[in-house]
Amino acid sequence: MDARQAARTLEVIRSLMERTCQYQLLTARAGLAAGCLAGLGSLLFLFLDPANRVDFVAVWSLVFLGSLLATLMGTVMRGRERGERVWSRQARAVLWNLAPSLFAALALTGYFVDQGKHLWLPGVWMMCYGQGALATSAYAPHSIRWLGVAFLPLGALTLWLGPNWAVPMMGLVFGLGHIGLGVFLLIQERRESGLRIHRSVA
Amino acid sequence: MNAFKRLLEDLDPVLHERGRLAIVSVLAAAERLTFTELRDALEMTDGNLSVHLQKLEEKGYVAIDKQFVGRKPQTGCRLTHVGRRAFSSYLDRLEAIVRQGRGQAPA
């Protein structure tokens, strides 16, 4: 074994260890779809009144459900491509860590909508999302950790800017944030597409 | 050059086999994996995986337990302290080889 082979073996070991504990079925396509949906949601308020809570809740519920659907479809397709189980140990760990933030976001959404203060929700959602992303960082790709780190101060900024900035900030943070994530994942997927590391080892 | 040779000779022969190294690498990142999870993660055949696990168990690197989940028997595998130490030492030696190759002094 020479230094080059040793370096290659170390790289393979690192990849194997990452594959074992990391959830790797997150796709660039899902990130891009979620970003586009959030952008589209923001643009819809050029025609709708964000102060109308029915419109506000309906639009963002559709964006959330659409993003969830895109993520599920992307995950299932990626699982099939790689011959991996979708409901894996890693997927369960990610969901288990995500659950408290999701619960908090849903409970706060109910409260703010009920109080007629729904335009404060975008900041709250960003902070819950950031917290959730950070909670899954032990199992998720590194890019999710950075997304979480970015969302926390951006959520605080959105709250500080107030209701007038609620919709533009949703488009900027959730829209551009997810498109950025999608582009990053796409570059990563292209880079790693030829590297089926475990096959070369096992 | 002698130092480099010594590094190569010091590589644990049990771990210096790609199948076993892959098994230990995967187990090092998880507390416990079932035989099926390990087989699927490494795309090994049952026979191949069994042979490697047996060798690793004999050396005391891997502990294998059998339990019932519902009515189905399940074989679990985990890395022992000895195995984790051996793996860590193997990684140290690989890093030393890389450093030697780059002309740096081993740590």
Description:
The complex is a heterodimer of chains A (202) and B (107). Chain A has 202 residues and is mostly helical. Chain A has one domain (3-201). In chain A, 79% of the residues lie in helices and 0% in strands. Chain A contains 8 helices and no strands. Chain A has helices spanning 3-21, 28-44, 53-82, 89-114, 121-135, 142-161, 166-192, 197-201. In chain A, helix 2 (28-44) packs antiparallel against helix 7. Chain A starts with a helix and ends with a helix. With 107 residues, chain B is an alpha+beta fold. Chain B has one domain: Arc Repressor Mutant, subunit A, CATH 1.10.10.10. Chain B is built from 5 helices and 3 strands. In chain B, strands 1-3-2 form a 3-stranded antiparallel sheet. The radius of gyration of chain B is 16 Å and the shape is elongated. The model of chain B has no long low-confidence stretch (mean pLDDT 85). The chains are: A mainly alpha (202), B alpha+beta (107). The A-B interface holds A 1-4, 6-7, 9-10, 12-13, 16-21, 84-85, 89, 198-199, 201-202 and B 8, 11, 18-19, 21-22, 25-26, 28-30, 33, 37, 40-44, 91, 94-95, 97-98, 100-102.
Name the descriptors.
heterodimer; A: 202 residues; mainly alpha; 8 helices; B: 107 residues; alpha+beta; Arc Repressor Mutant, subunit A; 3-stranded antiparallel sheet; 57% helix; 17% strand; elongated
- State the helix count of chain B: 5
CATH hierarchy: architecture of chain B: Orthogonal Bundle
Biggest interface in this structure?
A-B, 23 and 26 residues
Tally the beta strands of chain B: 3
SS class of chain A: mainly alpha
Number of strands of chain A: 0
Task: Look at the structure and give the mean pLDDT of chain B.
Answer: 85
Low-confidence stretches of chain B: none
How far apart lie the N and C ends of chain B? Answer: 16 Å
Percent of residues of chain B in beta strands? 15-25%
N→C terminal distance of chain A? 18 Å
Number of domains of chain A: 1
Q: Topology as H/E string of chain B?
A: HHEHHEEH
| Helical residue percent band of chain B | 55-70%
Rounded to an integer in angstroms, the radius of gyration calculated over CA atoms of chain B is 16 Å
